[in-house]
Amino acid sequence: MIITMKNNMDIKQTLGFWAVLSAAMMGAAVTTLMPLMVGAFTDSNHFSAQQIGWLTAADVAGILITSSSAFFWVRRCHWQKMVIASLAVFIAANVITGLINDFNSLVLIRFIAGIACGVSYSIALAALGDRDNADKAFSIMVTLQVIYGTIGFALLPMVINEWGYAGIFHFFNVALVIALAFALVSFPCNHKTQHNQSRFDIKPIWKPTTLIFLGVVSYYFAQGTIWAYLERIGVNAGLTGSEVGYLLGLGFAISAIGSWLSGWSTQFIGRAGAIWLTVIIQMPCLIALLLMNQDNAWLIYAIATIIYQIFWSYIIPIMMAIFNEVDKSGRLIVLCVAAFKVGLVLGTPIAGMLVEHYSLNHVIVVGGIAILISGLLTIGANTMVKSKE
Predict the structure, then answer these.
(1) How far, in Å, CA of 32 to CA of 331, rounded?
(2) Mean pLDDT, rounded, of the chain
(3) Using CA atoms, how far apart are residues 194 and 376, in angstroms rounded to an integer?
(4) What pTM, to 2 d.p., does this model score?
(5) Lowest mean pLDDT among 4-13, 21-30, 181-190, 272-281
(6) Counts for the chain of helices (H) and strands (E), in that order
């Protein structure tokens, strides 16, 4: 009897862990597949370049609002009930998105979808941060996000050809239904109840918190510019949509190496070394994209985007680990999601403006500057965290 109960408990905990990972995976779905979303909205011929920037930012803005406020509510709510409700709303919003093409209505629906997504993503991130080996949990999360992106880049070009931009959101719903099924069966409980909010003192940690927050914002601002328009950059250089989808999917698959090596490499070169390594390697990738032409587009685009994606997957678990170490109460980690989305909310409309008034090359340059600034801020935060140990 005792063995049976223990086995049932282990199964339930495993299912709960997969519920958390599934919710976290879908929390990054919009970011992961943003280049294909931008391309699909563009090819629909319903929206201007500036409108596409706002459409892409609408999801992110909703996630930003919920993740920013999560500091106040994530340790007070019933996690399982909130995740189930938010996933259900997310699924419904995706269904509605596929049925309309009015710009104002779409912005509203995608904003609602973002709010729902932000609830489940924030709770999932807090649950991962509660685990004994949070660094490993974050690495697994990023690896799953990479796998999901790989499947998306492989399948979505065909889906978009058949269904238009609605196909992307139907694709989201397949994984969301699975996540909802897991959450209905099991989800971790909140073990760090937020009952002594008045005792929380931000003064000792506000400096490293500010630095890592701004560092993540700056890095994801770069993704809101470069990554969001990477599909258009390839098409503009003469590649077909299918070629771009294949190369981005291949790069995403290979980039799992980055998240896998992340925790291991920091033991040898330290977090500061890992951060600088990312900046030093990603910069030449962006320069190569600037120099790309129709004669060498396939080769340069393949090499540059694959290496760029490897180091995107590589650096994110490190940033999250620094964020997690700033505050041991487990409450500030949810602001990491907010930092992701602030960067994206700022990046995509600005990228749309740059494309409309200047060129895609300007998008690449602005994104590169943001990556450099991010490296400096993140290293500063890491130095402060280490000095307090």
Answers:
(1) 25
(2) 84
(3) 33
(4) 0.72
(5) 4-13
(6) 15, 0
